[in-house]
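Hi W.,

Here's what went into the run:
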Amino acid sequence: MLAFLARRVLVLLATLVAASLAIFLVLEVLPGDPALLILGLEAQDDTLAALRGQMGLDRPAPERYLAWIGGLLSGTSGISHTYSVPVFELIGERLAVTVPLAAIALMLSTVLAVPLGMLAATRRGRAGDYGVMGFSQIGMAIPNFWFAILSILLFAVTLGWFPASGFPGWQAGAGAALWALVLPAFSLALPEAAILARVTRAAVLETLGADYVRTARAKGVGERRILWAHVLRNALIPMTTILGLQFAFLLAGSIVVEAVFALPGLGRLIFQAVTQRDLVVVRDVVLLLVAVVVVVNFAVDVAYAAIDPRARPAA
Amino acid sequence: MNRFLHAITVSVAIGFTSIGSAQAKDSLTIGFTLEPPHLDPTAGAAAAIDEIVYANVFEGLTRIDQNGVVQPQLASRWDVSGDGLTYTFHLKDGITFHDGTAFDASDVVFSLDRARAEDSVNAQKPLFAAIDTVKAVDPKTVRITLSRPEGALLFNLGWGDAVIVAPESAATNKTDPVGTGPFKFVRWTKGDRVELEAVSQGQPIRKAVFRFIPDPSAQVAALKAGDIDAVANLNAPEAVLAFQADTNFEVAIGSTEGETILAMNNARTPLNDIRVRRAISHAIDRQAIIDGAMFGFGTPIGTHFAPHNPAYVDLTATYPHDPAKARALLKEAGAENLKLTLKLPPPAYARRGGEIVAAQLKEAGIEVEIIPVEWAQWLEQVFRGTDYDLTIVSHTEPMDIGIYARDKYYFNYDSPELKAVIEKLNNTSNPDARTKLLGEAQEIVTRDAVAVYMFQLARLGVWRKGLEGMWRNAPVQATDITGVRWK
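Here's what came out:
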């Protein structure tokens, strides 16, 4: 087991190093002068050169790459070109919004999708199945930002139950902060729930046809117990993969929903950083997202080994 | 069970009360599209910085009022020597910075010297180019000596880049701005809002919140839901029509300093031929672009000047919409079956307007290839590298007709005649003489068809009924709330 874990960790690290190289090279090729973007059209050449020197843009590429990696390993981060604060601080502030948002969205989508998927699988071919699959089709087709705007119009403007946009900050109290995240989380959760319902249904269906389920029925085990104790546990395997992917996607892919709801999250940060060519922020955030995906995949692998004895390496 | 219900009720109630807070009669919440990178107007070019702090947090020797007229601010009056080279400013008494330090002439000297220093990161250094020395005659008097007459000095000192800062706080103004204005900085929740508070008890607005909502439809929703009270310039002209019909809101359609032009690369064949540029001018129908791309909001212009300005000369009749004449001019210049590229930056006036322009040029026999680009690419390719045929952009700096006299500006236009007029303008302070020279400059750039002058960007202000004092026009990039109150 230890060898298995050690191998996995090595793969994780190698992926991170390769990703950091790829990120750095892509940003090198990207056109656009950050100094010009900061100082604007009227700036003189000497002011621009001075700012570029300040930002360290005049050093050769390998030196800058090593300085970046060295900084990361020692825990110091670069200073954002646009905000003039350490990038780690910026990322920390934004994660305080995006992580709760992603967590709530994930919870909502699981709570919605799993029972619906199981319902569809057990009522296969009948009204329940078609209903759930229809909802799933629509849910996958609806762009989440369009759904977001619709929900703002209904729940915020017409009914006035939720704020139309913005995040008051955790210092305004957990109640107000979470309230502001409900509509955005819902907009993110709906398309994810649609996909997850399908995956759940397929996984459950496959498991329902398995031999050990027939054996359990023959033994006289109740249908409910079969479903929850046996079928769900086996169906969890493909679902875990999807959940892992979804969490990583929610962290990065909430850009559009964050823009519509004006949430100061990670997605907004990276979008602004790209348009303003704030390369320091872009590369740290992208590397963070790569790390999240890689770590989540690693966790999923470990979870497989925990859930499914068949996935564990031979003792 | 009761405890649980109680907790739920309390959190729901908190949720509800946070919605209604925009309605209080002494607080104001304004929605903005762009968040500034920092809050020091003397260290960056972003208009978003001035939009929050100009006149509210920071003040200059002079200020620009709603009509573009220079008014006293930290200087209560001034004397100008006969030769126009010496300005003596008499400063107001009893002013303090928000951190308690007193304001006097030494702060003016510090601010202006800092702005024009060799290593300064002030984005508008040219504003101070004519200043030779700045001296504090006594704590309430500052004398500025120029190396040459600068007719626009009083206007320039009213820009956001010329505000007065204190040596004690200047280094941290980016994150903790300290000025002399009627509002002091409270907090900046990055990505969400900036909060200001009134300094004196007599200010009608006690608390001002500037919220950043990048999406225009989200701004509209926030206005309707009451989360924000006002948007100074709504980027959604289609929503303005709906607000005009809603009696809860007031819509103010004003003017900005944004001349929206179809710029042409004067150094590239065949655009270096004036007949081709004039043909393109004749091919454009301004009103169709205003109606099609801007929902009817915008004023046609015939030259590079703001129509609300008293010195404006109406030259819209110089090149009337005439596709037949355009074709004839192109034939005369031997430039038929032209194929040109049109590079368009992100704003709607460019992307939507560009499609209409391409269709109009097609009628005149010019094939146009539209290339959408992002701002960073536009700056590099079009502005820096002048690698373009045609482009659409809006120049939003006030009084910027002087750009036509610059060498290596992206128009690639070189006119000794215009340079002479601008040179003379810079050395003239008499207002009537300046107006006459500005008129001459406008006539030259239109006669030479340097660019096609399409329209002036409109400012679409929407706010709750009962809010008074919001600016309708934007002669400078600012959201001056010093005179705003609820009825």
